[in-house]
Amino acid sequence: MPTNDLEFAAFVKTHLTHGHCGSGFPNAPCMRDGKCSKGFPKRLCERTVLAENSHPEYARPNNGVTWGSDPHGIQAIKYLAKYVYKGSDRASLALQVEYDEVALTLKGRYIGPVQAIWRLMGYSTHEERPAVIQLPYHLEGRHRVSFTETMTREQVAVAIQSQSSIFVDWMRYNNANPDGRDLVYCDFPLYYTYTKKRGWQKRKKGQSIGRMPVAIPRQGEHFYLRTLLTVKQGARSYRDLYTVNGIYHEFPSAACCAMGLTFDDSKWVTLFNEVKDTSSASFLRRTFAATIHYAVVNDPQALWDRFKIAITDDCVWRMSRLGEGLNSPPSDWSDDRRRFDFGLWLLEENLKALGMDWAAARMSGPTHLWLTQQRNFLLDDALNFDRESETRTHEASLG
Fold first, then answer.
1. Do 235 and 312 have their domain in common?
2. Is residue 388 part of a domain?
């Protein structure tokens, strides 16, 4: 408790003290099987002890001072039952059977005479300049093809060969004309215009801005293709796009690596070095999952191996808390192996929340099935109550 700050000390006394429990208070919220589930009252201890893999045991010296308190009072109710005075949840619902045009008109937006005449004359209310053109991109043979249900297989095959895309036409123009080979894909609409019939042609007036759709690292080669297009000028074919310093690379990721567009994981090592000493293990697991989901991590497994001690710092405590609710790991496993495998199992829940599996994360998952069936531990705690005691309390409250 802070002794040099009276305001903080008052906060600790008000919000960080455990209520009455024990044999004299069997109905206390923390009571389980006749004893406090939080371990109160704590044993007396002359000084603070930092236990390994557990919470610290704070100093509670025996100074011989005791005092009594009156737990009764209406102010204590809100701590036992949150928002007891607010009542049950309430929702408002309105059903409209008939279409009321008058009511909808009355609820319409009010505009003044200037705005009204502007709209009556059909003038534009907004303008975008310069125009923005979406520039699609795709891997070889992955462009969109339109066909009808009545077309035969041969006709569909012909459509695939004949139909092109904005991206493919850009490479075809560069292959036939040298004037645009000093531009990257995004800058091409500044000086050229595109139509389906004529393809890319030199622009005679105006300008447009090209924008490629966003790609995230989990999209794999699609992401690296976009990265490559931001720097590669005047590509004339997929082979030319994937060629770096005269060497052809089969995949965009390899071409990006050869051009130095992908780097090592040193920045992620720096990130976790900064947060591991000040953040909880659960926060580190969420951060780790978000990093490999949203960012470019070259070797997630190596990053895990480097920081797994900090990421699984609470696993021993969690395993002891869950106890018999977990499936026992093999008896020949060391303590560290149990800890790290359980940490991978917890990390798997964070990955699932982001829609990822271990294959997408490029990591090896846990080897032990810690739970046969997924459980909701909050729900288990809520359902773990003494039915007879609650029945007596209910009957007593009814008088």
1. no
2. no
In a domain, 96, yes or no: no
In a domain, 315, yes or no: yes
The better pLDDT of the pair 378, 144 is held by 144
Q: How confident is the model at residue 240 (pLDDT cuts 50, 70, 90)?
A: very high
Q: 173 to each of 72, 83, 117, 190, 236, how far by Cα in Å?
A: 84, 68, 47, 15, 8
| 164 and 243 both lie in a single domain | yes
Q: Residue 26's CB: how many other CB atoms inside 10 A?
A: 11
Whether 27 and 393 have beta carbons less than 8 Å apart is answered as yes
User: Which of residues 201, 224, 258 is at a domain's end?
Assistant: 258
- Residue 158 is part of which domain span? 133-258
Question: For 11-25, what is each residue's pLDDT tens digit?
Answer: 777 776 777 888 788
HSE, CB side, 13 Å, CA atoms: give it for residue 337.
9
Residue owning tokens 């045009």: 101
CA distance 303 to 288: 9
57 and 137: one domain? no
Shared domain check, 371 and 299:
yes
Cα separation, 253 vs 259, in Å, equals 10
25-62 pLDDT per residue, tens: 888 888 888 888 887 878 888 888 877 766 778 888 88
Predicted confidence at residue 85, as pLDDT, reads 54
Provide the number of structural domains found in the chain: 3
Q: Is the peptide bond before 130 cis (omega within 30 degrees of 0)?
A: yes
Global pTM value? 0.48
Give the bridge partners for 131, in sequence order. 208
Tell whether 296 is covered by a domain.
Answer: yes
Same domain, 174 and 226: yes
The whole-chain average pLDDT of the chain stands at 82
Per the CB < 8 A criterion, the answer to whether 354 and 395 are in contact is no
pLDDT band at 377 (very low <50, low <70, confident <90, very high): low
How does DSSP classify residue 60? Answer: B
**pLDDT above 80: residue 104:** no
Q: Are strands 192-195 and 131-134 parallel, antiparallel or unpaired?
A: unpaired
How does residue 145 score in pLDDT terms, banded at 50, 70 and 90? confident
Residues 153 and 249 in one domain: yes
Q: Are residues 245 and 151 in the same domain?
A: yes
* Long-range own/partner contacts, residues 362-369 (CB < 8 A, 24 or more apart): 362/292, 362/299, 362/300, 362/301, 363/292, 363/300, 363/301, 363/304, 364/301, 366/341, 366/342, 367/341, 368/327, 368/329, 368/330, 368/341, 368/342, 369/327
Residue 202: exposed, middle, or buried by beta-carbon count in 10 A (0-12, 13-18, 19+)?
Answer: exposed
